[in-house]
Write a structure and sequence with these properties.
mainly alpha
Length: 138
Amino acid sequence: MILLQAIPFVVALIGLHVIIFKPMLAMLAERERNIHGFRKEAELLQDEVSGKLAELEERLAGARAEAGAERNRLRAEAKKAEDEILAAARVKADAALSEARATLESDAAAARIQLEVAAAQLSRQIASTVLGRPMGDN
């Protein structure tokens, strides 16, 4: 009796094993292999991305250094041009100042001469008025 009851159980167990368990275990094993493969592929891609990122960072640092050198060169050129312009302006200003001083000195000398002449005439007039007679030219 137990044997008769065990036979359908064993047949059902073998049927379930062939129909359900074996394909399901194969599918789970394939899934595990796929997951493992995808993880490896993701790690490889991550390594590749990290390498390319490092390369880009290196190129970016080189470009920054090159831009800094170019900026410094342009600043030096601008400073040199500024110094040249200032030097030329100083030369012009010094020349204009020297010319203005020369003009001022000649005008001052002419004014001194005119004042001396005017002072001499005024002193003669005062002397003539004080003495009551005309004064002659000496």
